[in-house]
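## retry 2 of 3
previous attempt timed out at serialization; input unchanged, resubmitting
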Amino acid sequence: MISDELTQKQRELQGVERERLNLERELLELRPLKTQLESFSENNKVQIETNVRSEHEKNKLTRQVVELNNEIDRHRADNEEMQNANFTLTEQNTILVEQIKNFEK
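## retry succeeded, writing output
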């Protein structure tokens, strides 16, 4: 009876040992996959960070281009106003010169 129990315990122990060995084998098989996954995740993280930086720089440059275009438009409008003012003053000067000529006669 004791020997039967001992045999049964040995079989259970062998089963547990087999299961442990199977789990260790599985762990050894999964380690390279874990390393690959970590490497892949790190590469993805770096790529995402690079993309975010690039997108941020692109947005920043786009804002600068818009600001510069707005500034160009303001300068064009200012230039047009000055040209109109210059034209008006030139017309007034021409009229004054004619009046002076007429006055001197």
